[in-house]
Amino acid sequence: MSQAFKIEVKKTEKSRLSETDLNHLPFGKVFTDHMLVADYKNGNWEKIEILPYGPIALDPSATVFHYGQEIFEGIKAFHNQDGNDYIFRPDMNWKRFNTSAERLCMPTVPQEIFIDGLRQLIDVDRAWIPTAAEHSLYIRPFMIATQAFLGVHPAQEYKFIIILSPSGPYFAKPAAIKIEKHFTRAAKGGVGFSKNGGNYAASLKATEVAEAEGYDQVLWTAPNEHEYVQEVGAMNVMFVIDGKVVTPELDGTILAGVTRDSVITVLKELGYTVEERKVSVQELIDAYKNGHLTEAFGTGTAAVISPIGKLGLAEDAIVNFDVEKFKIANEIKAKMNEIRLGLVPDSHNWLVKI
């Protein structure tokens, strides 16, 4: 840790851990005892502290409330079979976080604060890491604009915060996904590739409509013609067509998922053909009707590998998959778990020991 970014630790007087059942956790509703907070003022990061988890005070005119300068990331820590605790590829999240920051005219966060900071925070709250199957410690770094003023231009003051949430699986059952052909999430030249709150706020209405129709989330399509698929709200998406894994290309409208990148790497090592390209709705409909669309699944930090049990492509093309028969999705899920748990060598050095 650089002396320029010394982190002060102020521990809570009373832990809430004894009140928490780590074997039966919902996703994102339980939080640990501490959080990391850093302030950005006068062009510098300062006052970096690990504090008891709790509310933060902001001026009502803080620009995050009015102009939406806010970004975040999602990472996981977990207990490995060797008895140690690890984070999965935090360097990728740090780089993506700063890519988002640059797009929204926010300051970048040094690695010493982002990665070393979250390692120190997790070390303080290490006892909160669950060991039950499909459970992990979800890590949420985020940054908000805090300068008090009204006016449309970048703020000069920010807070960077990391909170921790011991969590169970994001999807408790196979997901039901509907192709979205009315609402739009992102267009080229926009902020679709960045992980900012505005992208998710804009998705809520479409998801609400889909839920009323019996679906969990929507699969976004490119604007205007709504011809090509993009991503699902909480994850990237992959399809198995004629034995090949097909996934939408990174064209600036979808998130460059860390899990997506990892899965593509491992799939190729397992001998599968992976095509990153444009994927049209019509191609999926034709593949379904011809019997060539055999699997669909999502990849994401929260969802990990999530099988899609129902895929609504069109009124006359609603696919109901038997996810138990998925070959590639189940194989890659097992393989990713083996890497995460240390059951196979970490040949890519993806695991960072805490």
From TrEMBL:
Its EC number is 2.6.1.42. It catalyses: L-leucine + 2-oxoglutarate = 4-methyl-2-oxopentanoate + L-glutamate; L-isoleucine + 2-oxoglutarate = (S)-3-methyl-2-oxopentanoate + L-glutamate; L-valine + 2-oxoglutarate = 3-methyl-2-oxobutanoate + L-glutamate. It is an enzyme of class 2 (transferase). It comes from the Bacteria. Its cofactor is pyridoxal 5'-phosphate. GO terms for molecular function: L-isoleucine-2-oxoglutarate transaminase activity; L-leucine-2-oxoglutarate transaminase activity; L-valine-2-oxoglutarate transaminase activity. Keywords: Amino-acid biosynthesis, Aminotransferase, Branched-chain amino acid biosynthesis, Pyridoxal phosphate, Transferase. The modification N6-(pyridoxal phosphate)lysine is found at residue 195. Pfam families: Aminotran_4. The keyword rRNA-binding does not apply. One of its GO terms (biological process) is L-leucine biosynthetic process. Pathway: Amino-acid biosynthesis; L-isoleucine biosynthesis; L-isoleucine from 2-oxobutanoate: step 4/4; Amino-acid biosynthesis; L-leucine biosynthesis; L-leucine from 3-methyl-2-oxobutanoate: step 4/4; Amino-acid biosynthesis; L-valine biosynthesis; L-valine from pyruvate: step 4/4. Belongs to the class-IV pyridoxal-phosphate-dependent aminotransferase family. Acts on leucine, isoleucine and valine. This is branched-chain-amino-acid transaminase. It comes from Rhizosphaericola mali.
